[in-house]
Amino acid sequence: xxxxxxxxxxxxxxxxxxIGFILPAxxxxxxxxxxxxxLYNTGFSMGVISMISTGILASFGIEVVRNQFLxxxxxxxxxxxTVVLSIFFLILAFFEDxxxxxxxxxxFQYSGRLFTDFFHEVGLAATFLNIGVMGxxxxxxxxxxxxxxxxxxxxxxxxxxxxxxxxxxxxxxFPVILGAIIAIxxxxxxxxxxxVLAVLFVTGVAPIAxxxxxxxxxxxGFIHVMITPLALTFQGGFDLYNxxxxxxxxxxxxxxxxxxxxxxxxxxxxxxxxxxxxYFKKPKKSI
Length: 287
What we know:
Elements lengths: L4 H30 L6 H19 L15 H22 L3 H4 L14 H5 L1 H22 L5 H13 L6 H16 L7 H9 L4 H7 L1 H22 L6 H20 L3 H4 L19
């Protein structure tokens, strides 16, 4: 950024301390912005802070250079390691409870909106099974799309695996992933590392699909891919969780609109997952 080595180290340490100090406090307020429909809340918070930092540096004429050095040399090892990890969690699930398949569907009852702790809600075995299933589905999707496994891609898959205990499951993740893929296939956007990461990290807005249905999830995934490059420009590359930053805006803009026209999960009582239009049919209230 134009600093000398010594000055750069000092500025970096001070900046890191300041950001680390204010980030936890800022997280609580950023939750109100997207109402918990962005699972990457910290990524959004860091994006806002990064955007402010980028603006300050730009006003002083300091140019921030972003580098992209990626290697796919070890993609087979990374792929096998991810598959083994997923299978390990599947084995743990059946070891914990051999009837876990009967309990697993309970996880689909939750939208995944923050804070949804699957360990607490459905138990250890079902959560382990969900982690394994989501891991294998993520790897399968990468293989079907013909994408090499690189470090960032593995990081995205591991993020999906981790959040499979905290909000993500196949039913709320598939619609947003489908929307992201449609956005790349039917627009001038090309399949690059950035777009691949967007397809994986788009699961950060999976609670929108879980709350408002399949079609809304597809729309959210589509829009997410559209604004992710713009979000990177805003935050200057300081926020490594750029998709979390973009997801915060997607959730903040879409959910208030859809809440007016669509039934939420608890309102529709399982009725019409595809598109629960509020003025088309009203679910019967349970007595």
